């Protein structure tokens, strides 16, 4: 198949505006600065979550450093009534949706099982099982479709997750039933140590969508304005009954896979240095400065807010008591099954918590 996908880019790596016209939007200054603020907060909270893990306060953490533009751009353009189905690396998506850093921290501490109440903000709990949330997202979007709601569902997956059978089944259902869902794939070049070249034999991830009859677009995932514009258009099409879109956002995971990983064992430092030159926040800051939107005052205000949020996160997470172990069983189904009740009782007896 011909390589017929241009990569949509509105802001070049040096912060200058590109000549792209089709996706250009005249966003108001307050939206431009809000996107900047969300990206900076995402990076700062990400650092604090890593610190908390290193200090033994979190069990694990998967950093989104380098992916702030993709996540913030894709989530910030949606309505609060739209549904989000995250994988696990989506801190920028969570913050854009108003989920607090403390709520994210308690998920990684293990004191709030997978974030079951993310649903209060129309966001599904995180999915550590790669791709398992894809049929869930499509099913939820089909339910909304049948209920006559005008919500759109955004499904966030990594390049690795697209190789799972679940992802392909979800794409097929989405296509056949013209489901109002957007597949937003963050191609961060690697799935733990497996490079994206091992995930497909096609020209790109986006090319695979054609086999399902799903329109696809590739976007510079380090360009927040491009991600915002591409996602807005896909969401609008879905809302108007035009069915699913597959978006491949080209980005890079700057940190390790998780705090348990050592990426120096499988990727050269030169790759990391190359992508550091395409940093999504530095590029957007340069663009905003030349547009007169980013002033010293704004940058100080955002830095101050980030510092306060980091302190609040630490205060909220450190020393949180372990949850009641029985909650693990109570939150699987709406009503606990007899078999799960039996397992729960057996565990409590074993732990000496119940006679
Ligand atoms: C079904 C399943 N198989 C294997 C794993 C182990 N695993 C965890 S993350 C990961 C790679 C995920 O890569 P990708 O989808 O590209 O997302 P990224 O971590 O790069 O954001 C793997 C293989 C898993 N969590 N679930």
TrEMBL record:
Q: Which part of the chain is the Dehydrogenase E1 component domain?
A: 37-303
**What are the GO MF terms of this UniProt record?**
magnesium ion binding; pyruvate dehydrogenase (acetyl-transferring) activity
Spans through the membrane: none
Q: Does the keyword Oxidoreductase apply?
A: yes
* Keyword Chaperone listed: no
- Catalytic activity, EC: 1.2.4.1
Q: Which Pfam families match?
A: E1_dh
Which key words tag this protein in UniProt? Oxidoreductase, Pyruvate, Thiamine pyrophosphate
Q: What is this protein called?
A: Pyruvate dehydrogenase E1 component alpha subunit
């Amino acid at each position: 198949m011909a390589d017929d996908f241009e990569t949509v880019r509105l802001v070049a790596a040096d912060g200058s505006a590109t000549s792209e016209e089709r996706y250009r939007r005249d966003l108001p200054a307050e939206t431009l600065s809000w996107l900047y603020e969300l990206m900076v907060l995402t990076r700062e909270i990400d650092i604090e979550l890593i610190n908390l893990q290193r200090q033994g306060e979190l069990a694990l953490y998967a950093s989104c450093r380098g992916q702030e533009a993709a996540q913030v751009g894709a989530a910030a353009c949606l309505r609060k009534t739209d549904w989000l189905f995250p994988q696990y690396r989506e801190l920028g998506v969570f913050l854009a949706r108003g989920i607090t850093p403390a709520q994210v921290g308690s998920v990684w501490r293990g004191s709030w099982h997978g974030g079951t109440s993310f649903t209060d903000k129309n966001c599904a709990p995180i999915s550590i099982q790669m791709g398992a949330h894809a049929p869930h997202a499509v099913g939820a979007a089909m339910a909304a479709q049948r209920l006559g709601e005008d919500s759109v569902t955004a499904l966030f997956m990594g390049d690795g997750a697209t190789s799972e059978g679940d992802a392909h089944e979800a794409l097929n259902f989405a296509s056949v039933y013209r489901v109002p869902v957007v597949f937003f794939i963050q191609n961060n070049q690697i799935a733990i140590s497996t490079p994206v070249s091992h995930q497909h034999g096609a020209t790109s991830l986006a090319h695979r969508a054609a086999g399902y009859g799903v329109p696809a677009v590739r976007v510079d995932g380090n360009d927040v304005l491009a991600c915002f514009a591409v996602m807005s258009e896909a969401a609008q099409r879905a809302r108007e009954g035009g069915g699913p879109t597959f978006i491949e956002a080209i980005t890079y995971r700057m940190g390790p896979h998780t705090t348990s990983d050592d990426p120096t064992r499988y990727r050269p430092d030169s790759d990391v240095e190359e992508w550091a030159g395409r940093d999504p926040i530095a590029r957007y800051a340069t663009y905003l400065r030349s547009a007169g939107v980013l002033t010293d005052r704004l940058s100080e205000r955002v830095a101050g807010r980030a510092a306060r949020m980091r302190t609040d996160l630490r205060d909220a997470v450190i020393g949180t008591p372990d949850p009641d172990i029985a909650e693990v069983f109570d939150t699987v189904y709406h009503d606990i099954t007899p078999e799960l009740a039996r397992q729960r009782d057996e565990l409590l007896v074993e732990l000496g918590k119940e006679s």
